[in-house]
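A brief tutorial aside. Many learners find it easier to grasp structure tokens once they have seen a single protein encoded end to end. The record that follows does exactly this for DYW domain-containing protein. Read the sequence first, then the structure, and try to relate runs of similar tokens to stretches of the chain.
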Amino acid sequence: MLLHNLVVTNKLLYIYAYHEALADAYALFGVMRDREAVSWSVIVGGFAKIGDYMNCFGTFREYIRSGERPDNYTLPFVIRACRDTMDLQMGRLIHHTVYKFALHTDIFVVAALVDMYAKCQVIEDAKQLFDRMLERDPVTWTVMIGAYAECGNANESLVLFDRMREEDVVPDKVTMVTVVNACAKTGALHKARLVNEYIWSRNFSLDVVLGTAMIDMYAKCGSLDFAREIFDRMREKNVITWSAMIAAYGYHGKGRDALDLFPLMLRSGILPNRITFVSLLYACSHAGLVEEGLRIFNSMWEDYSVMRDVKHYTCMVDLLGRAGRLEEALNLIEDTSVDRNEGMWGALLGACRIHNRVELAEKAAKSMLELQPQNAGHYVLLSNIYAKAGKWEDVAKIRELMNHRRLKKIPGWTWIEVDDKIHQFSVGDHTHTRSKEIYKMLKILSKKLKLAGYVPDTNFVLHDVDEELKLGVLYTHSEKLAIAFGLVSTPEGTPIRITKNLRVCGDCHTFSKFVSAIMQRMIIVRDANRFHHFKEGACSCGDYW
């Protein structure tokens, strides 16, 4: 009988698994007289392929108990299942099995483990395995480069890319997309240009995936001109490409340019999707284009059959809230049929901070804390609103609650790229090797700015201390330290580009405008929300942010 022939049954198993008929595959597997490593591999891999991880893990346990030795074909399937489920505990058990069967030197198995640890954000374990590998292919390098970027250490991603080239490993297009995305996270324009030069030197084709990633990279590194140049050079563009360019204009505060791109997209035959409308509404929100945003929001389903989701409503709450139309924003939240999330309430809370609406802020914060009680950022934002209103007893209560729940505020950092090196600053930082020069420059700026009419806004010092102490804290904000360092370490007349992990504070925004005029420097600031281009005493956001 042919079904007793192991070659035939394995082939049939493979066909079932390939076509995702796992019920049939498992039924056949159950009646097979003989099984070998290939049989187990096909069924384990089949369950992994369709996302049935419970049966994938269960079948693998049966495999180990059967006495069969797992091979470098089966193990990567199970390890990837651990990655996809973020099941670190199971992943460590599989790792133990790898050592037990002496497969810890196999490139395919170890590469899968590196990928698993990286996706589970256990970056040190991933790096340890990576460094021990005797042989590393481009895929493994790419996984490790991407892992550092995902874990918030994009600078290390770029260091790893340099090391990859030093070891004469030739990157492929997937690697380059990963590196480009890492560059976007750092905001380092010099690095972006070096990566761009490498892409051209290796003759990588500017297809939709790579081209779109490069648009995003240049936009997030503060260069809209280069982003648009890449966009215009691309022969083929899809809806994601157009949406990326629209988004780029949006977070640089160029709302009108974003809107002008939309009809060109339609004329090219590309229909918008949900991402396109998020990009358009975001652009309207950050440029104060309220009526245009309302028109686009209302046209989504009527004209383009695109369903609104929570991201679109969040953009609209932000748009109305920034414009001071907070009751409309609240009504939109309460009347919406989509599930409300913390982003929607967060947009309202941010608007309350701008317009000093403490009571409404409390309502928004209460809703946010019900959804995400462990998110320290929500507490901090409400605390800042209380502090700005001088309600120090309420500030103390919020901080006491945070301490009780063991929540910590995310520290603010600002970094700047000078001479191909990233320099990072925190508030009151004295650790930099050129600290004396930095603080000397701040003193010089203090005198010049005072003569020019700059008055420090101590409302942005969120502590109940006297004015003199507030001024001291205010002048050592990380943004100001980075700008001062840029002034002492870069040639006169050249732009200063800084990146902050949080939203830039109002006083630092004013400070940057004055410095741009007095020192005749363009200052480009990328914060958690958008870009600010300061030139000759004005900001590209028009103080609408």
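Self-check: Confidence is low (pLDDT under 50) at residues 460-472. If you spotted this yourself, you are ready for the next section.
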